[in-house]
Amino acid sequence: MITLAENFRALEQRVNEACKQAGREPGSVNILPVTKTFSPDTIRMAIDLGYHRFAENKAQELKEKAIELQDYDQLQWVIIGYLQTNKSKEVATYASEIQSLDRIELAKALDNRLQAAGKSIKALVQVKTSPEVSKTGLEISEVPAFLNDLKESGIQTLDLQGFMTIAENTENQDDIRKCFSSLRELAERCRDITGLALPQLSMGMSGDFEIAIQEGATEIRIGHALFGERNKT
């Protein structure tokens, strides 16, 4: 039986090999384990393997696991799923980063909660690079105006770091690559427009992360390749 440790080490080797193939330094891409539906005990095993930053899709599940694992003071939680404004308190309280920022009203709701908590968090803007109606995020054409609105809002509690996307769910690698390359190109344009560093590109999951690395991903979000099949809830 393959162990969790073997899954993690195998993935790390695949990531390093993908970096080499892309002419990038091994270790230049961060692995963000996605733990939605997996138990705190499973996360504890990942912590023992040296991981301290985990992603959740739902704010309530993030909150519950953060409370359950609060004895680990180095843990950081990232919200990567669509966030309703009425869930901003959970994220402001328990998360260190949001990768699904997609509207100004959400930014303002988070800012109100973060100011009350006296803290700030990192933020990535989620961009819809796929034609699928099920995908969320800003359209590429909407991003420059959103960044301008965010700047004019004067919000200081969201540390804008870059962009996140989910590629099209398809077997066509050219279509997948286009999703990732379009995000990279958008980031380059936005750096020129805003003067912001925007260094982070969160893109690539278990089935397509090698392509994402070729296209400049700085972080990949991995669930199935690390933890196996998800518990259905």
TrEMBL record:
Keyword field contains Glycoprotein: no
Amino-acid biosynthesis in keyword set: no
Highest taxon in the source lineage: Bacteria
Names of the cofactor(s): pyridoxal 5'-phosphate
Coiled-coil spans in chain: none
Keyword tags: Pyridoxal phosphate
Domain Alanine racemase N-terminal: 9-230
InterPro entries: Ala_racemase_N, PLP-binding_barrel, PyrdxlP_homeostasis
Function: Pyridoxal 5'-phosphate (PLP)-binding protein, which is involved in PLP homeostasis.
Family: Belongs to the pyridoxal phosphate-binding protein YggS/PROSC family.
Protein name per the record: Pyridoxal phosphate homeostasis protein
Organism: Taylorella equigenitalis (strain MCE9)
